[in-house]
Amino acid sequence: MNARPGSTWQWQVQNRLTTPQDFAQAFGLGEDWQAFAQQASSRLVLGVTPYYAQLCQAVPALLKTILPDPQELVLAANETSDPMAEEATRPKAAIVRRYPNRALFLLCNQCATYCRYCTRARLVGDRAQQLGKKQWQEGLDWLAQETEIEEVILSGGEPLMLSDARLEWILEGLKKIPHLRFIRFSTKALAVMPQRITPDLARLLGRFKPLLINAHFVHPCELTPQAAHAVELLLAQGIMVSSQSVLLKGVNHQTEILAALFRELYYLGVRPYALYLCDWIAGASSFRGDLGEAQKIHGALRQILSGPMLPKLIADPPGGKAELSAQVLEGNQGYLLTDWQGKLVPYPKVSGPNEKQDPRFL
């Protein structure tokens, strides 16, 4: 019996919208837009699954994430093609190492859907940057020699564009390296192609615990019944699921939208982990808000969400991640902390051994 059209991830990949004409027909765009989109595709290729295209038709905020904008072709101040300086820490084609104890393993430079704010626009969709078994083996060999590394993050592109058989080969190779204790996937598939999380894939991933799926969601409308089912399949196999989001102007740059997103993720069993500032990737100025604005939004979220629902607010400059935690001021007698209401409250320093103790505690 043949699968219903759209029900399999392979069908979603094979029937993606990939040309300006496809986008124009789906979203009612004119010939002038098509001419511009052809030019913009030289920066980042076009591509969206039929499943996510249908979501974008219903939610204009999501459409902004996949639709080229004229500002893409303007290089704003401080923008660069490699905002995290990954190329300087890329010892192998498939490896990026920015931290002593963990490394990024790039499995694929293709995506099911291409986000216009992608921090790896320089790599994804480029046939000259293809990754395959030769590059994966070189990555495994390199990881085996770097004994300080205990965690590997499988990313891309979209790592779940690979077949189950290829993922199994890679995961088995990683498990043979004794100092690699933790495996993490960084994926957008649950949002744009939840059909990829099949029972077979969930069982396969469950063999390699402890394993974390870090899913990329940016809007509560992405949390469809299909996405919820994908999460259920993973959790049933004992796989941890967390989320990372990007703060995007015109998409989710409002406290209410983000609060709804993080509440619903937590309800589904997904721990909101990170809310990133949009990287300084060339062509993404229309998405980027100011750091101060981001802190205000995060502070407002702190007032209305419980601790487990509140992700960290993070910037990702070339030197590594910087958590933008609430302000702490230090004085002679102690500290001033910023509480959940945004108020400064005193917090004492730990007493030294020679300082006078309260007689009530002697």
UniProtKB/TrEMBL annotation:
The keyword Magnesium does not apply. CDD domains: Radical_SAM. InterPro entries: Aldolase_TIM, Lys_aminomutase/Glu_NH3_mut, rSAM, rSAM_sf. Belongs to the radical SAM superfamily. KamA family. This is Radical SAM core domain-containing protein. GO terms for molecular function: 4 iron, 4 sulfur cluster binding; isomerase activity; metal ion binding. It holds the Pfam family Radical_SAM. Keywords: 4Fe-4S, Iron, Iron-sulfur, Isomerase, Metal-binding, Pyridoxal phosphate, S-adenosyl-L-methionine. The keyword Oxidoreductase does not apply. SUPFAM superfamilies: Radical SAM enzymes. Residues 97-308 form the Radical SAM core domain. [4Fe-4S] cluster binds at residues 111, 115, 118. Its cofactor is [4Fe-4S] cluster; pyridoxal 5'-phosphate.
